[in-house]
Amino acid sequence: xSTWSGRCHCGxxxxxxxxxxxxxxWPVRACQCSFCLKHGGVYTSDPAGSLRFTHRxxxxxxxxxxxxxxxxxxxxxxxxxxxxxxxxxxxxLLMVINLRALDPQPDGLPAPQPMSYEGETIGDxxxxxxxxxxxxxx
Length: 138
Ligand SMILES: [Zn+2]
Hints:
Layout: E1 2-7, E2 14-19, E3 29-31, H1 34-39, E4 43-44, E5 50-53, E6 61-64, E7 72-76, E8 82-89, E9 92-98, E10 113-115, H2 122-132, E11 134-135
Parallel strand pairs: 3-10
Antiparallel strand pairs: 1-2, 2-5, 4-9, 6-7, 7-8, 8-9, 9-11
Bound molecules: zinc ion.
């Protein structure tokens, strides 16, 4: 496993992402929904990896929900930094990280793959996230 650190711009919020996958095998997903296009969000996750929050100031977490409201999109309320999205499945937190938040940026990332999840039912969505997203180790 290697550990990758991410943070918002001001450093109030952060996470550690652990994965055994080499960077050139990471899935890199560019979601084409209107929210992700506005933020230029590109995401990765590893269901065999883990995610831990390392917030210096947890009070700075700002959450946004839209559409089917099945996930929270996490921002820093001070600097606007966008960390990724978190959902709860069977009492467990699952997350995708916004690759732009990684610090430093990994070398050798694959090109982002455009993804559209339009037309998914809530059941499809939960199944997809349970299979792909990274479990929280907190
Ligand atoms: Zn911040």
